[in-house]
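HUMAN:
Just now I want nothing more than another pair of eyes on a protein record. I would be glad if you read both lines and explained how they fit together. I have put the entry right below:
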Amino acid sequence: MKVAVAMSGGVDSSVSAALLKEDGHEVIGVTMRVMPANDYTASAESAAADVASKLDIPHYILDIHDVFERRIIDNFCRDYQQGRTPNPCILCNKFIKFGALRDKIKELGADILATGHHARIEKDDHSGRHLLKKGRDRMKDQSYFLCQIRQEQLKHTLFPIGQMTKDRVKRIAAERGFPAVSRPESQEICFIPDGDYKKFLEQYLPNVSRPGKILDQGPSASVKDWGYFPPDRCT
């Protein structure tokens, strides 16, 4: 079975690729370029390529930054502009990793996409449906970010490290000499690696940070009027 592993250069995707190859699968590594080339993308692509070389598997860089900007970044900025807090990872998994990227790997002859998500897929024998479940390591579980993945997508997806704890994944990476094990874990959105949301939004929406009125509407207004929550608001 030919499996394409979405490789970011990090420890989870690196170990996923290694485990699949050791299990006898024909593995290729694919790295998404979701932003125009810069120092950050070059570092991630280089790290993924180094791991692929170490595993002796083909590695491809797939430029999909146009669809990523349209589907993810535009939505991210629009939500903030409208006073909402977006979750771009959910949409990225739906439209990019398991959408645009899946289409790309088919062109490379791969039917199965594997990622380094901490989540599990189990097939229910009674219904025949593929069930998305939490990863074994509940502190690292990422099933929430995969909540909009459809049955057909789950059917052709593998999460090789879903049954492992993060500590176990790191030990496997260290045993195989992957440099990713020494890299600090990133908790930031991939297209804002420095975590400066304000600066990023101002680049896309120059007027986003202008002063505005603070409005107090709806049931919460009672806090201001009463000075405390009235009894019927305390449930």
